[in-house]
Design a protein that fits this description.
The complex is a heterotrimer of chains A (about 90), B (about 325) and C (about 260). Chain A has 2 helices and 3 strands, in the order E-E-H-E-H. Chain A is an alpha+beta fold and about 90 residues long. The mean pLDDT of chain A is about 95. With about 325 residues, chain B is an all-alpha fold. Chain B has one domain (about 1-275): Up-down Bundle (Ferritin), CATH 1.20.1260.10. Chain B is about 70% helix and about 0% strand. A two-stranded antiparallel ribbon of chain B has the order 1-2. In chain B, helix 3 (about 60-85) runs antiparallel to helix 6 (about 145-170). Chain C has helices spanning about 10-35, 45-75, 80-85, 95, 105-125, 130-160, 160-180, 190-195, 200-220, 240-250. The two termini of chain C are about 25 Å apart. By secondary structure, chain C is mainly α. Classes of the chains: A alpha+beta (about 90), B mainly alpha (about 325), C mainly alpha (about 260). Chains B and C meet through helix 2, helix 3, helix 6, helix 7 and helix 11 of B and helix 1, helix 2, helix 3, helix 6 and helix 7 of C.
Chain lengths: ~90, ~325, ~260
Amino acid sequence: MAIYEVFERKGPTEPITHVGSVNASDTDLALVLAKECFFRREHPTDLWVVRREDMHPLRETDVLEPGTDKSYRSIEAYKGLAKKRERIEAELR
Amino acid sequence: MGDEREEAFRARVERGHVVEAGDWMPEEYRRGVLKFLEMHANSEIMGALPEREWIPRAPTLRRKMSLTAKVQDEVGHSQLLYSVAEDLGKSREAMFEDLIAGKTKFHNVFHYPTQSWGDVAVIGWLIDGAALVTQHALLRSNYVPYVRVLKRICAEESLHLKHGEDITLELAAGTPAQRALFQEALNRWWEPIMHFFGPSYAPSNDALLMWRFKTKANEQLRQEFLDKYVPRIWSLGFTVPDPALRKDEATGRWVYTEPNWETLKAVVSGHGPATARRLGLRRASYEEHRWVREALVAAGNRRSAVEVGLAAS
Amino acid sequence: MISTDDCPPLDAATRAALVTYLLAWADDELVLGHRDSEWTGFAPQIEEDVAFSSIAQDELGHATLLYRLVAELSDDDPDRLALRRPAADYRHAAVVERPNGDWAHTIARHYLYDLADACRTDVLCDSSYAALAGVARKMVREEHYHLMHHAVWWERLRDGTPESRARLADATRALLPPAVDLFGEMPSERVLVAVGIVPCPSGALLAEWCLHVQPLLSALDPDLLPLLESAPAPRHSRPVGQDFRALHAEMTAVSASGLGERW
């Protein structure tokens, strides 16, 4: 017996999401069980199971924390753009 | 050095930080949370037993299906909760074996027998109502793996509550015999319901409250329950078997006859009217299915060997 | 759902025949669903408890569709038909009233029954009576999951341990004769076959069922194969046995108590 993590996709353009886990002897049984354990009230288009031991965590989670300023990757960095355009258009008139 | 980590943890939870399964946590926190989760999981699997007796006797097709679905949800909740508890270091098998050996606890209300369809109404409306009051408060627990499954559990319990209320309303609007069925059941269940929330502790004596795993004290939850349900019971023309029960308008608090806490202690330590029979049923079922578990393990091992063999080739 | 009002009206004899036929099938689904629901809380494994409970609800749901159809045709009430008839009036097949037994017996019974039900439902999707065809089509998808479920369990019990294999073989040996009887002529069937409401007689479906069951038996225990060769007994009324008497008493304990009409 193993723990199987269960994943769904709610619709064709949605991402795969995790919903929980089931205990089962193998993948076919895990799929049969997952369908009723997690989808009695919702109807995703797809369902997957993966053995937990086949999922591998990043151990050094500190590398996930933010570092130096990378705000240029975000649209927030350009918050004042409309005002900047108005100012420059005015100057050029 | 251990104390420093514990102080840092305490400071973080008091600032409102959440705790994940893989985080370092003080042993007292881990043990306390595990015990709480284990009790909740046990309660769901034992909670299935009183009501499942009424599935074969459900009086309409719709109730037969909806009661089956409700008990199915309770079993599903135990599945979710055992999974969360397992991640704190105790296997599902160990938890189940401790339960049937009488070593671990489950909520008092599931130690009592059912006698009529009236009990199905009381359990579905008032006991699920009580459970929902406590579970709602736990949605703000700092142990977030629990919160994640509690969201699904609370959503389903809200449905169960409506199911129970629907059954109650039919009895309330029914024949005098049906009204009597509900009243008689309510008379029997009132004390266990009051016991359900536990005695009032001073917050400093409630360790899980101090660790911010729990967010509300027992008495506060009981008051919320009384506030929500007693007026509705009365408006249906039923009585509560406590002559002292009333709301003190000055304080806004419900006054009631203090329940006998020794009774609660005896019940949850395994001496309830239905405890031995129900644990016996669980034990018998677990033994009866041993050959199935063995078959699954053997079949599973054989399949894994094939998969590994295929992958290697 | 297609209602009987949307269908051309039937003459009295055909209507009576259809009511009799549907009631027997509804009773099959109800009694099987009732047996299935007895496992809720006590299945071999928590996740399976949840899955099998859905199967129970599906069968009860199928029964509900059929009782509703009968109720429309006979101006009756589905709950009265399902839960307030005297025990002697039920017309289900003997195989569904058997107590659940162990898990092997439960899986074997459900697998054999659902394979038969799939044969029956498949042809009824083409019934000339639209309301019945509609009901059959609704059932098909859920039955697909049931067959998937039963196949997975059947294989694991067959291949698991010598004990699980023996239990499965013993259960199948006991279940095959009453399972074959699922293909016995249903009450009033001939009238319905003549007008295409039932596109194919029950007996003619036996061969198809055997095509599915033979490989299962060969892989489990070939000595079981001869049990497929018996002729199915027509489905007449039977004396009420102890098993159904007990089931019926429990099933009607509240509904027939007289304490009230609405629940």
